[in-house]
């Protein structure tokens, strides 16, 4: 399981609202196009399912008091790109929780 933590200094409600309103932008930043499906099984957890290049990646985002934690389960066929995915999540995650 790949884990990327992004610190923040906002309250949880603000971060949840930003994730809810911007989560559709995730697929815009995946080369070659992708389908991204999100759902919120609890107040502070957003599940993600990303389909791209014939692969499916599942994971979730946990909203904590001082950080947002992205955990993604990369299939073995994609393990070689883990550093690139981590960097993309870090950059895109910052954009998702930033104010407009």
What do you see in this structure?
By secondary structure, the protein is α+β, with helices and mostly antiparallel strands. The protein has a single domain (2-97), classed as Alpha-D-Glucose-1,6-Bisphosphate, Chain A, domain 4, CATH 3.30.530. It is 27% helix and 38% strand. The chain has helices at 12-22, 82-97, and strands spanning 2-7, 35-42, 45-52, 55-63, 67-73. It has a five-stranded antiparallel β-sheet. A hairpin with a 3-residue loop joins strand 4 and strand 5 (67-73). The termini are far apart. The model has no long low-confidence stretch (mean pLDDT 91).
Q: What topology does this entry show?
A:
Elements: E1 2-7, H1 12-22, E2 35-42, E3 45-52, E4 55-63, E5 67-73, H2 82-97
Antiparallel strand pairs: 1-5, 2-3, 3-4, 4-5
CATH architecture: 2-Layer Sandwich
Strand order of the biggest β-sheet: 1-5-4-3-2
Report how far apart the termini are.
31 Å
- Could you list the spans in which at least 5 consecutive residues all have pLDDT below 50? none
General shape: globular
Number of helices: 2
Overall mean confidence score, pLDDT: 91
Taken as a percent bin, the fraction of beta residues is: 35-45%
CATH topology: Alpha-D-Glucose-1,6-Bisphosphate, Chain A, domain 4
Derived structural class: alpha+beta
CATH superfamily: START domain
Number of domains: 1
CATH class: Alpha Beta
N to C succession of SSEs: EHEEEEH
Radius of gyration, in angstroms, nearest whole number: 13 Å
Question: What portion of residues is helical?
Answer: 25-40%
Q: Please report the total strand number as a whole number.
A: 5
Query: Biggest sheet, in brief?
Result: 5 strands, antiparallel
């Amino acid at each position: 399981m790949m884990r990327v933590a992004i610190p923040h200094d906002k309250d949880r409600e603000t971060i949840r609202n930003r994730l809810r309103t911007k989560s559709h932008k995730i697929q815009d930043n995946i080369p070659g196009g992708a389908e991204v499906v999100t759902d919120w099984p609890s107040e502070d957890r957003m599940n993600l399912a990303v389909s791209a290049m014939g692969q499916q990646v599942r994971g979730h985002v946990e909203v904590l008091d001082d950080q947002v934690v992205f955990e993604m389960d990369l299939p073995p066929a994609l393990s070689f790109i883990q550093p690139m995915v981590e960097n993309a999540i870090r950059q895109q995650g910052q954009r998702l929780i930033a104010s407009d």
